[in-house]
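User: Predict Putative pterin-4-alpha-carbinolamine dehydratase's structure from this.
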Amino acid sequence: MTFTQQTKGTDTMTALAQAQCEACRADAPKVSDEELAELIREIPDWNIEVRGDHMELERVFLFRTFRHALAFTNAVGAIAEEVGHHPALLTEWGKVTVTWWSHEMRGLHRNDFIMAARTDQLAASAEGRK
Ligand SMILES: C[C@H](O)[C@H](O)[C@H]1CNC2=NC(N)=NC(=O)C2=N1
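Assistant:
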């Protein structure tokens, strides 16, 4: 899995968000422990959850209303569809839990970190954040 960072901007999260996702393959390499330590620093508000035999990236976003939560849910869904890499999305009143991991390879790929960074960028401009 190559991973091309379009820019080496000062804000590494922005650079991560602008990186290109690659098509997920079952035999794609999981991120190494070193990559994990480096990449999680670029998305500091995300938690690494160990679930069964794999890790997942997860963050809760709070909103004033269900309508705002639903709008954000749909915005995340749209960027997922654009790249063909999809999160788990739990939408509740005033709250959206976003979880990224790579199903076919049962683990964390750089794509998951890219999409978490893009999710943060969406949240930065989302209406009704608490
Ligand atoms: C056929 C389709 O492209 C694949 O099933 C994609 C869809 N979206 C995906 N999303 C995630 N998170 N992991 C995958 O392995 C995955 N595979």
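The radius of gyration is 14 Å.
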